[in-house]
Design brief:
- The protein has 5 helices and no strands.
- It has about 130 residues and is an all-alpha fold.
- The chain has one domain.
């Protein structure tokens, strides 16, 4: 059974994990399309293992990154597509990551900044106060 952590520490850990994922995606896209990269499943898996995150936690983190990325430029969440939830959670996480990569690129272009800068702005919104 995992060791219980204080809520504040858990929120910070969760934000660190989510931040690592979005920054990983920002760097990964420099090597080409994320959807065909073998680095995507390996990188996500390594981050999940490092932070002790399961699939449900990972899905929650990626959806929180989506929300943060939408807030950075003030995009309307209702007009942004949401990836369909798949029965296979592993495939759902991978599809969410590919979607998030596209959203990160759109936000960066909209703001006129690099993907890394857009990722950093979203991560700043994920940190607990």
């Amino acid at each position: 059974m995992p060791e219980a952590r204080p809520v504040v520490e858990t929120e910070a850990l969760w934000a660190d994990f989510a931040g690592e994922v979005v920054c990983f995606l920002a760097r990964l896209a420099d090597d080409g399309p994320v959807g065909v990269s073998l680095s995507l499943p390996f990188g996500l898996s390594a981050s999940m293992k490092h932070y002790g995150m399961g699939l449900d936690d990972t899905i929650g983190a990626v959806l929180a990154i989506r929300e943060a990325l939408l807030r950075v430029p003030g995009l309307d969440a209702a007009s942004e597509p949401v990836p369909l939830r798949l029965p296979d959670q592993v495939m759902f996480v991978l599809n969410l990551a590919v979607y998030l990569d596209g959203l990160l690129g759109r936000v960066a272009r909209l703001l006129g900044v690099s993907r890394g800068e857009a990722a950093d702005a979203a991560v700043g919104m994920l940190r607990p106060n």
